[in-house]
Amino acid sequence: AEGCLQSRPHVTLVSETWYHLTLRPALTSWIVLMLRNPSQAAASLAGSGVAGDLGGVDDATLAEYLLGELDTRNADASSFIELRCSDDQTKLLNLYHSWLNHMLPFALSRVNRVNYGLLSTSDLQRAVQRFRDDQRRLSSININDSDNTT
Question: CA 100, CA 23: separation in Å to the nearest integer?
Answer without folding.
Answer: 10
